Amino acid sequence: MTQGVWGKLGGAGIGLAAGGPLGALLGAVAGHFLLDREGSLFGPTPREVVFTTGLVALAAKMAKSDGVVTPSEVAAFADIVQVPENERAGVERLFDLAKRTTSGFEGYARQVAEAFRDEPALLEDVLDGLFHIAKADGAIHESEARYLAAVAEIFGFDEARFAGITARHVRVADDPYEVLGVARSLSETELKARYRALVSENHPDRVIARGLPPAAVAIATRRLAAINAAYDRIAAERRLS
After folding, report:
1. CA 237 to CA 205: how far, in whole Å?
2. Left (φ > 0), alpha (ψ -120 to 50) or beta: where does 84 sit?
3. In whole angstroms, what separates CA 27 from the centre of its chain?
4. 9: which strand partners?
5. CA geometry: angle 86, 81, 67, nearest 5 deg
6. Cα(229)–Cα(49) distance, rounded to whole angstroms?
7. What pTM was computed for the model?
């Protein structure tokens, strides 16, 4: 059977390698599932492990902040965090433990931010994944909105960038220009150039080429769909060829 992010190395060892609150979380569930990596336990922690573990932990804390986990949110979580069926129970244990720990979400968010400080696109992937889960029940509730804004701040996103990310998921102002992060005054040439750059940056094939886990690919696919939909609306309004 194909193994996913979780596979061959002992959970305790990778927990030690990861360090911090995410390492403690992994160490706490060691023995329930293993991690898919060859080589030394003491080398750099694979970034896909940090990415997926961080996303699971932050999703769990978001669920706790909302106070209830709906079936639609569970389904959205499964859409994003895709693992082989034989590894699903381990990920669910990780989620449940993260939700129950007394540690705050801030520690998890800071560790993810530090791990990907030179790759802000990955931090945006994590935030997009959290938005996808939060909106699954048809609305992003006030507690979830506050939580997402706090995570974005820890990740180093300013208000404008967070507004652009939010616009991909919530039609507060129903503004496709905000989704693309551009001004309405942009010329046709500038708009097309921005659109092509966004498609290139966010194409799932690029994510796959970077060796990222299925969770990141699923997030990129949804983000690209939002970008395409926003551009299509603008193109129709402007009657672009």
Report:
1. 30
2. beta
3. 22
4. 35
5. 110
6. 31
7. 0.66
Per-residue pLDDT tens listing for the chain (241 residues): 334 444 433 444 444 445 678 877 777 765 444 444 433 333 345 677 788 888 889 998 888 776 666 777 777 777 777 767 777 777 788 888 888 877 789 999 999 999 898 888 889 989 988 998 888 877 788 888 899 999 999 999 998 889 888 887 876 556 788 878 888 888 888 888 988 988 888 788 877 776 666 777 777 888 888 889 888 988 888 887 6
3-state secondary structure of 141: coil
Give the domain ranges of the chain: 1-45, 47-238
CA 187 to chain centre: 32
Q: Where are the alpha helices (DSSP H) in the chain?
A: 11-18, 20-28, 47-66, 71-80, 85-100, 105-115, 120-134, 142-155, 159-169, 176-180, 188-202, 204-209, 214-238
Please write down the HEC assignment for all residues of 193-229. Answer: HHHHHHHHHHCHHHHHHCCCCHHHHHHHHHHHHHHHH
Q: Is 126 helix (H, G, I), strand (E, B) or coil?
A: helix
Q: Which residues are CB-contacts of 98 (< 8 A; sequence separation ≥ 6)? A: 25, 56, 57, 60, 61, 108
Distance of alpha carbon 84 from alpha carbon 208, whole angstroms: 18
Integer angstrom CA distances of residue 83 from 15, 70, 168: 19, 20, 26
Tell me how far apart the alpha carbons of residues 83 and 90 are, in angstroms, rounded to a whole number: 10
CA 170 to chain centre: 16
Closest CA to 101 of 75, 63, 137, 73: 63
